[in-house]
């Protein structure tokens, strides 16, 4: 290992991130009772300009009055972009009035590390000024050509927990030819999003962040959602957005390590402990060589499985 290391900033279960427009409070109750791990209440693109202010009020009220945490929900709010005049009030009003109930702020269209820095500074000032003890983490949406060009530098920003890949805006920003949000264009021989997701995941892991894949627009095709989610999971993403309630269970399933994989990971750790006790660095399991790198991969699986199990137990207790 390098002498420079960035530990995971925070372990949270984030298999599914449900997008809920702040302008539609009728959807809040169902979202809270859903199986989504993380919910982001949206102030940005799902909310029309005339609805921005009432949506902010809806979100503040819902964070304060609804028992999201008792339902095991990690709560995020997607603020408006730094290029809009709504953004500063989103941060000021939501954090001042509901900061104790908020886990994360999702910053859209991040282009440079200073975009994160500005929100970090605002949140720090408001928390101090208002005596808000609750820590609030930051998430950045990488969804512009500028954001992807700077993704390594953005990932190093303080207080960030997650990078999300926003495929819809990314396609628009890059002028990629898409057929469906997050889907594949048959003119391309393979996965046209591979390079972008891959680059974002590497940047995340270098700095201890979670990597989350964004939306898949065709909610009438669970098969294609699952294929997209699996492609992201293989590359190292921890979860994916759900833009429709039907996608929550699919995401939770794809991003939960299967029991056979968890079992094998635990057996790898035991076999290597036994080998170490005999002074050996490598061992064999089921006819395959395993060594310290296998232990690191196995530990990743076990950490995720343990976190999911702990979340399940906490949810069962609350119910
Ligand atoms: C999400 O915001 C996206 O643009 O895909
Ligand atoms: Mg977007």
From TrEMBL:
Asked if Metal-binding is a keyword of the record, the answer is yes
- In this chain, substrate is annotated as bound at 78, 143
Q: Which cofactor does it need?
A: Mg(2+)
Span of domain HpcH/HpaI aldolase/citrate lyase: 15-245
A GO biological-process term: oxaloacetate metabolic process
One of the record's GO molecular function terms: lyase activity
| Positions that bind Mg(2+) | 143, 169
The alphabetical list of record keywords is: Lyase, Magnesium, Metal-binding
Looking up InterPro entries in the UniProt record yields: Aldolase/citrate-lyase_domain (IPR005000), Citrate_lyase_beta/mcl1/mcl2 (IPR011206), Pyrv/PenolPyrv_kinase-like_dom (IPR015813), Pyrv_kinase-like_dom_sf (IPR040442)
Q: Which residues form a coiled coil?
A: none
Q: Which family does it belong to?
A: Belongs to the HpcH/HpaI aldolase family.
Output this protein's name.
Beta-methylmalyl-CoA/L-malyl-CoA lyase
């Amino acid at each position: 290992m390098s002498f420079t290391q960035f530990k995971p900033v925070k372990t949270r279960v984030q298999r599914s991130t449900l997008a809920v427009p702040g302008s539609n409070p009728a959807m809040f109750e169902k979202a809270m009772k859903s199986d989504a791990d993380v919910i982001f209440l949206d102030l940005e693109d799902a909310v029309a300009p005339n609805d921005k202010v009432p949506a902010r009020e809806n979100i503040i009220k819902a964070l304060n009055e609804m028992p999201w945490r008792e339902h095991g929900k990690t709560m995020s709010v997607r603020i408006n972009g730094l290029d809009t005049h709504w953004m500063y009030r989103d941060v000021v009003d939501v954090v001042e009035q509901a900061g104790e109930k908020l886990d994360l702020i999702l910053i859209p269209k991040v282009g440079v590390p200073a975009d994160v820095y500005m929100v970090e500074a605002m949140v720090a000032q408001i928390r101090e000024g208002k005596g808000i003890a609750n820590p609030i983490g930051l998430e950045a949406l990488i969804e512009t050509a500028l954001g992807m060009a700077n993704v390594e530098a953005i990932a190093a920003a303080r207080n960030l927990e997650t990078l999300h890949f926003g495929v819809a805006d990314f396609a628009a920003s890059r002028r990629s030819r898409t057929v469906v949000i997050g889907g594949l264009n048959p003119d391309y021989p393979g996965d046209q999003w591979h390079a972008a997701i891959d680059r974002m995941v590497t940047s995340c892991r270098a700095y201890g962040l979670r990597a989350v894949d964004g939306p898949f627009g065709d909610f009438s095709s669970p098969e294609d959602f699952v294929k997209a989610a699996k492609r992201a999971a293989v590359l190292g993403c921890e979860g994916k957005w759900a833009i429709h309630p039907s996608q929550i269970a699919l995401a939770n399933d794809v991003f939960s390590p299967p029991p056979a994989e968890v079992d094998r990971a635990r057996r790898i750790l035991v076999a290597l402990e036994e080998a170490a006790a005999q002074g050996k660095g490598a061992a064999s399991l089921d006819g395959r060589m395993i060594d310290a790198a296998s232990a690191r991969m196995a530990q990743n699986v076990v950490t995720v499985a343990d976190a999911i199990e702990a979340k399940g137990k906490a949810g069962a207790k609350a119910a």
